[in-house]
Amino acid sequence: MNDTFKHKGLRKKLAEEIKAKGISNPDVLKAIETIPRHLFLDSSFLEFAYQDKPFPIGAGQTISQPYTVAFQSQLLNIKKGEKILEVGTGSGYQACVLVELGAKVFTIERQKSLYQKTKVFLPSIGYNPKMFYGDGYAGLPAFAPFDKVIVTAGAPFIPEKLILQLKVGGILVIPVGENDTQTMITILKTSETEYIKTEHGSFRFVPLLEDKT
Ligand code: SAH
């Protein structure tokens, strides 16, 4: 694995930059400092790996901006050993952050080419979340309930099935909006039938697509 002192130095700076932008969870910052993000990008984009920006990862998709990854991870408030569902595996970077936070990660991707690439890539750098090819709107009923659920694509609405697959006391983090920008929303499930919805500002994601598997 090509991970040099230069890469490590750039990551430390990136973590500091994200901290300055308001991320305070030390475990999240440590995960950003640990994971070799440059390996998740095509080699032609290497010089961009440690800028706080999203980047193309093929199949018309993007690896989220590190700040956004950190922001969603902080909202999840993960405790070691929690079972987490991620919708939108993409490059697998967010899944690795969740693994670094001590979670048991289940992640689902609907683009077959990305699923296949990431399924080989993550174990090759030592990360082993459980990866699935399928439609995130359906979640993973066979493995539910989850302590937390994170959606990393912009959803036109909150998929009911994802709330159903949350434990009581669990949190869903999801960017919701039909257009270019979405509102980051958390759903705290307070009973089998009730939840508290909170908004956390505007973000930009690629869309969560329906009926394409
Ligand atoms: N978490 C990713 C970000 C990927 S971008 C990372 O860290 O790199 C969002 C991803 O959601 C894309 O890979 C896209 O293919 C996927 N996606 C879109 N609609 C989906 C759906 N219905 N089910 C599962 N994945 C979906």
Secondary-structure blueprint:
Elements: H1 5-20, H2 26-34, E1 55-58, E2 61-63, H3 66-76, E3 83-87, H4 93-100, E4 104-109, H5 112-124, E5 130-133, E6 146-151, H6 160-164, E7 166-176, E8 182-189, E9 195-203
The protein binds S-adenosyl-L-homocysteine.
Which features characterize this protein?
alpha/beta; Rossmann fold; two-stranded antiparallel sheet; binds S-adenosyl-L-homocysteine
Give the distance, in angstroms, between the N- and C-terminal Cα atoms: 33 Å
- The CATH homologous superfamily name equals Vaccinia Virus protein VP39
Helix content: 25-40%
Give the CATH class. Answer: Alpha Beta
SSE arrangement, N to C: HHEEHEHEHEEHEEE
The name of the CATH topology is Rossmann fold
Bound molecules: S-adenosyl-L-homocysteine
Shape: globular
Going by CATH, the architecture would be 3-Layer(aba) Sandwich
Explain what the structure shows.
The protein contains 6 helices and 9 strands, in the order ααββαβαβαββαβββ. The protein has 213 residues and is of the alpha/beta class. The strands form 2 sheets. The protein has a 7-stranded mixed β-sheet. Strands 1-2 form a two-stranded antiparallel ribbon. β6, α6 and β7 form a beta-alpha-beta unit. S-adenosyl-L-homocysteine binds next to β2, α4 and β4.
